[in-house]
Design brief:
By secondary structure, the protein is an alpha/beta fold. It is built from seven helices and nine strands; from the N terminus they run H-H-E-H-E-H-E-H-E-H-E-E-E-H-E-E. Strand 8 and strand 9 form a beta hairpin. The longest helix has 11 residues.
């Protein structure tokens, strides 16, 4: 996991990333694969009366998220694999946010299906990915960073993985010098009724 300086170089204004993808006050949000909580703390602050579920399969990183969000009673940490954790939420949310990890998911459509099951009609799923540039062109703090070039996904490739799970593509927004967000909304009624 990168250190805070690395994250700050990638996203010097993380609050603007959350605003760009459409996370607003009152929403219930999932930070899927939250890592050390770089975005999670600001989500807790931004949604105010809403709730934030932070999911990660790394116990140490999830503990860091809990520490970073100690001042926010609206945080709900969930330890475990992303797919299984989503299946166990038993809630409906307004937004699922996933940064920097979708490219490494083995079953991208399966994960997207699990996201669809917890997303309210009218909700959004934002996938933050590295632009499809050669790794040697993404220099962060003096070194090439990010996933191998062949793992980087174009927005069209993200659409091919996500849309079969019951989503329609809404838009792509730039969220920094190295990343874009592909934003999706449900195209079909939720197959599992959530309360």
């Amino acid at each position: 996991m990168p250190d805070p300086d690395w994250w700050h170089t990638l996203w010097p204004d993380p609050a603007s990333v959350l605003a760009a993808v459409g996370i607003t006050a009152g929403m219930d949000v999932v930070d899927l694969c939250c890592g050390d909580g770089y975005f999670t703390r600001l989500m807790c602050e931004r949604v105010q009366s809403g709730k934030v579920w932070a999911l990660d399969l790394d116990r140490d990183l999830l503990d860091q998220t809990v520490q970073a969000c100690a001042a926010y009673p609206n945080l709900h940490p969930v330890f475990g694999d992303a797919l299984q954790s989503l299946d166990q939420l038993h809630i409906a949310v307004d937004f699922v946010f996933m940064a920097n990890t979708f490219h490494g998911v083995a079953d991208k459509t399966g994960l997207s299906t699990a996201v669809r099951k917890v997303l309210r009609q009218g909700g959004r799923f934002a996938v933050i990915n590295w632009h499809r540039r050669p790794r040697e062109e993404t220099i962060v703090l003096g070194q090439p960073r990010g996933p191998d070039t062949e793992l980087r996904m174009r927005p069209a490739e993200v659409r091919q993985a996500v849309e079969p799970a019951g989503f329609q593509f809404e838009k792509t927004v730039d969220v920094g010098p190295y990343h874009y967000a592909a934003i999706f909304m449900p195209s079909t009624p939720n197959p599992v009724r959530k309360t």
